[in-house]
Amino acid sequence: MSVEMVELSVKTAEPVRPAGVLQQNRVFLDFFWDIAKPEQEVRLKAVEDLIQYLKKSDQADELDYTFKRLVDGLAHTREAARPGFSLALGQVLSAFEDVSLQTVLDRIKEKHNLQTVKKKLFRNAMFGNLFGVLAIHQSSRLPKEPQVVLGCVKLLQSLSQRKQHLKELPTKTMMDILNEIPEDVFEEVLLSALQTELEAAFSTPEQLQLLLVALRRFPQTLKPKKLKKLLGCSTIINADNIPKLLDVLKMAARSVKKECVLPSVVLDLLKLSLKEDSFQHFWDNAIINGMLKEAAGPAHYLSFRLLGSALPLLSAEQLQEVLSGEVMVQYGEHVVAAQKPDRFKLAPEMDVFVSDFLQECQDADKQLIVMVRFSSLTNKGYPVVPSVWRVVQHLQPAAVEQYVAWLKKTFLQPQIDKLLDFSTRKQKDNPAAKEQKDDSVFRLRKWIISRLCAIIDNHLVKKSEDLIMDVARFVFFHAFFSTKKASADISETKGKLSVPLDDKIRAVLVNSFFGLLLSMHHLPLAEDSPEGVAVSQKRALGVTADGTMWIYHLVQYAQSLLSQPKHAQSSQPFSPEQSQAWDSMLESVANLKKKAKKGPSAESSAFQQLFLLVGMHLFKAPEELLVIMKDLQSCMDKAQEKKAKKKKEAVEQEEEPEWVEVMVDILLSLLSQPSRHIRQVCRTVFSSICPNVTAAALTAILDVLDPERDDEDDAAVVVTDDNKTQKKNTNEEDDEEDEEDEDMEKSDGSDDDSGEGEDDEAMEDDDAEDDEDEEDDEEEVGPVDQNFRIKMMKILQNQNAMTIAGTEGDGSSDEEMDDDAMLQLDKGLAELFSEQKKKAQAKKDEKTKMQKEKALVRDFKIKVLDLLEVFVARQAGSPLVLGLVEPLLTIIDRGMSSDSDQQEQDFLRRAADIFRNQLCRSKVYCKTVGDREGELHDLLEKLMTKSQKLSDSSVCLYYFSASLYVVKVLRGAPAAEAKEDATADGAAGSDLKFMGSLDVDRVSKIFIEALNSFMGRRKSPLSAQMFTDLFTRFPGLCVKMLDAAVQHINSGVRVHQQGQACVLVLRAMQSREVQQLLSGAAWTELCGQVSGQLTASLEKVGETESKVVKEKVVKTLELCQFLVKIVKQQKLSVDLEPLQTVLQSLTSAIAFKKTGKLEDTYWAVVKHFGVIKPKVEKIKPEKKADPKELLKKKKGFLPESKKRRKRDIPILEPAAAAAAAEQATLRGGKPAAGTGHWKKKHDKKPKQKRPADGAAAAPAASPSPAKKSKTTTTSESNSAKKKKPKQKK
């Protein structure tokens, strides 16, 4: 890098500087520019480079100049530059220790003297002093120069009086200095200087913190005697100082209202209380009886933050005391109240405090105390912390086990009185407070179950296999069993329930157990197990360290409970038939495990899971799953027999369905259960039986998805508002409710049930909404039916009300109904309207029920799509896959044409993905058509015919993709591809002419008809991209269709179709495969035909500016370019003269621009004929003055209203004008001619503009200046305005 010497200009008024400073090089000066930049990385690099430069140069004048620039920069006007100069000054002082700190401090005081600085620079000077002291402090040299310490402190003391600018920065800087200096320097130098601040320690939080820092750093100097002399007491925390401390704490709380942090002075005060052994006194009087007595707000938030920050500092006894006191109760009320929107929430901060404490603390007893006390903070029995509280993952294993034991004990014997339970004001005013205890027990048990399941579900929690099994056994036992007599073998029978379990909590237990079963199904191996550590491959999920499934252990536990009826009693005892099904399940699982020992297989494991899962669900719904269990058992037996004996009698096959068909029916029945675990197991089992699936089994799956069958089933048809039909599924209604309950339990948290304070308002809002809904329903009833009208007339006639009403209308009778008649009439009308209202409500309930059933059926179909997806993925090469094409297209067609909700869209999106991405685009497909050639050709023709009749182009795309898939299947794979198992659509095959079983002529005719339909109809669902894909994937068919495509270059029904025909022909001719198939005379003939069609197409182009025509011409020219290029390169015998002639005349038909796609393509084409695009000289156009710019007021000029106006000279007649001019000549000696100096004067300073009418009234030509019209001056001024912008440029 070249170094440039720059001379610094010096004014004569300033004192002359030394020559060395006056001639600094640019590299050295750039350091100071970079230090002032806002980017931190640039500043740090500049500081580092400056120090290195100064060390290398070792010049005294440069070092002195550096200190001058850095001290000046401390008061920089840009706030971002001050820290940079302060940092640089501190680093330079640290690097050059021979420079005295006192000298630098004196220079800072002199440069930024507050007594002599100008008023507008006063604030900058204050910051200059502050950042100067910070720089000296950062140099780490203060302890070596005590006098400098004293000077810095005194300077900071003077700055602390300017709080409106510096706030508390000077006091904080003094604290930093105290943390650095030794005790002897403090005692000898600073103690006397800081005596005023120390004596006023209770006035502000900063001064109190200064005292606390001094006490912590210099305990030998500030002994109790010294404190008594300074403050009047030997300790900080005592009964006399509590009111003062309370005022300081309130000030500190208000000071951090926006920052949402804990002031450091409060934490220091807490540490001092622990040191002085006065923590309990401080906590009770200053926090509980002081801060918490204030209104909810900053004072309370400070107390909560202090509670969280104090956790690592307290002993086990202090933790127990603090976490059971009033601060926790107030925190719980805050959490409940903060659930409303737009409320400040402190719970996330508390989570961080607790998480940090548990992560750093290694004492399991302290961890347990914190977890138990936070879990004991309850609102009407429900803890305020969420059941999925993730801080549990930081617990030690011993603490986890003890915490789980406490949860189980609390579940068995809930003692609300021993918990830290509270109620909000609204809950206390609730008259239903008598039911609070029972409801609280239910809410507490519900949270405990969710808490236990969440511990198992969280993989980050350190837990052993015994603990996992213990929790699962506990939940299972209390969900389905009860203790009859304690047993040593069953630990769950030893626990006694203080409050019996009701049906409501058992329902929660059942749902939670099956959710826990799903979590265990995905549970990885425990980290502490030796087998889990030794596994290097992909770790298995849902198994213990010995490889046994978790669900198998639970089934064994359930069997032990069933085998000991004297000790454990089932809540729903099995019938003999159900017990037999359970025993047969155990026998089948045992047989599968024996076979798995000989040779483990995925099929065996899947069937074990299915048997075990269905067996566990027998406890939940024994009647529904009994039949499924029997069918499953028979299927397994038949499958084993079929493997043992491959040949069976034909009679048996005709009488009974295949076992796989029954298995598919079982899986479909299980999918109706609201369980994700069952859904995953069904998917796994179906994956294992996919090779055995028959056409009948696949049809059973498709029948569930077929939308036509829903319309045809008259026995299960209901009519909804949109006149659509839907199949009923009565068994799934209750299941949906269970599923909703299960989801609600899984999503339990502090935001769900702890906010009971708002439940009353929510209920009131719901009631109000219900009333509004009823009113809306009454309004939406519509016209009254005839039966209601007849009944109304009958009631009125019976009471003779209509006659009275008619006579009253005539005014001819004063007869009125008596009281009895009126009561009778009111009673009859009330009964009639009540009946009508019940009918309206029944219609509404029926409508809601049908919508719910529709959602259930749709959800069931989404689950069934899992089986279809597995089959397509596992059996893509099976001929059975071909039977999925039409059903899936029907689903897509029906889904696209209907107005669907989000669930319907999800179903449609899933079906479309299976069809297009996993079926049509799969690399594996059926390559052996067999005797189904005719059927597939008919299917292809049917699909293409249907696609042309569709109205939606997006649906047509799926039909066209299906057609290409059928063509791919019919073509198959050549022998070489079959050996290599290459499935790349055959386009890169060795033999391009191989078409397999495809009837080329018939298929070509089908696609040519589709192409003609696309080119001959104004609105066609087909698109050019579809045929482009066809040409690319099947060059053999492309060759057959090329002639038809070439003819459409001219015969297309619209200009757009003609352009698309050019695109198709261009893509086809660019294909290497097509060029190989049409090599020789056929290729030459094709080029000739294309040339003729292009010539005829371009001849039709007339003079037009149409965008569509231009787009067509562009596509035509692109084809021309390729054609001319290929003919020239291959030297084909094709006559291009007609095409050249038409191209030359094209410029007269369409107006070309300088550049553009059309123009560039045209010149690229004619370039092959030797015509070069002419070069156009660039001429800058004359800029016309914008009238708006002329009217703009120019900056820096006076407005017209402020200008001094000249006296208007009256307009005279010619004779009078001559006399006036003559007199003027005699007086001033100036010429009277109108073209003399007067005119020049007017040119320099034009007159004020007159109104338009005045200008028009003036004579057009005047020989004298007095008669000059205003238009002349206006035009002159306008011309001047035109010139001035040019002069500016």
Provide a descriptive summary of the structure in words.
It is found in: Nucleus. Residues 629-656 form a coiled coil. The protein contains 63 helices and 5 strands. The chain is extended, with a radius of gyration of 48 Å. The model is unreliable at 1-23, 528-537, 646-654, 713-781, 805-814, 976-989 and 1224-1289 (pLDDT under 50). The longest helix is centred in the middle third of the chain and has 56 residues, at 819-874. The relative contact order is 0.02. By secondary structure, it is mainly alpha-helical. α44 (885-897) runs antiparallel to α47 (953-971). Helices cover 65% and strands 1% of the residues. The strands form 2 sheets. A 3-stranded mixed β-sheet has the order 2-1-3. Strands 4-5 form a two-stranded antiparallel ribbon.
SS field, number of helical segments: 63
**Average pLDDT score:** 78
Report the sheet with the most strands, covering strand number, pairing sense and barrel closure: 3 strands, mixed
Q: Taking Cα atoms only, what radius of gyration do you get, to the nearest Å?
A: 48 Å
* Shape, per Cα inertia axes: extended
Biased composition (Basic and acidic residues): 721-731
Region (Disordered): 710-788, 1187-1289
Protein name: Myb-binding protein 1A
Biased composition (Acidic residues): 732-782
In short:
Helix content is 65%, strand content 1%. With 1289 residues, it is mainly alpha-helical. Helix 34 (659-671) runs antiparallel to helix 35, helix 43 (819-874) packs parallel to helix 45 (902-920) and helix 44 (885-897) packs antiparallel against helix 45 (902-920).
